[in-house]
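Make up an example, fold above all:
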Amino acid sequence: LKEEFQAYSEPEIIEALGYLDVNCLAVRGSDGVYRGRGIYPVASLMNHSCICNTRNIIDGTRLQCYATVKINEGDAITTHYASPLLPINLRREKLMSRWFFECECMRCSSTQDLTSGVKCDNCSNGYLLPEQPLNQESLYRCGCGNECP
C-alpha cells in the first residue's frame, strides 16, 4: 500500500482527503447514535440551506433522500449541513469551520429567527433578537425597546 501512495505528493494526498472530508455525510444508527461518515456522491452535490427542502435517511449503507416540501422544476434541491436547531451564530461558525463558507441564507439573515433570541428581562413575552444577524457584533433588541450589545 505504501508503494501506491508514493506516486502522490503529501499535499496531493491531503487535498484528496480534504475533498472526501467536506463531502461525507454523518451516519447515525436508528437509535440516533453517530456511527461514522459515509460517501454518497449524488447526495454530496446538494447545497446547504438552513431551511432545506429534503431530509436524508440512512438505512444501513443506503441513503434515501425525501422531499420535505414541494420542489418545483428548476428549484435547488437542498439539505442542511449543520443542525437547524443551532442558533444562527453557532450554525454559521460550524459551516465556516467545517465546510468553509459563510451562510447568508434567508434564515441566517432573518431578524426574527428565535434560535438566536434571548428572553427579554424587561418585558413578559419578548425576545432580544439581533438587528444584524450576519454581524457577530450585532446589537440585540426587543420589541419593547430593551437592547443588549
About this structure: Residues 10-23 form the longest helix (14 residues). The first strand starts at residue 24 and ends at 28. Helices lie at 2-5, 10-23, 88-99, 106-109. The two ends are 56 Å apart (CA to CA).
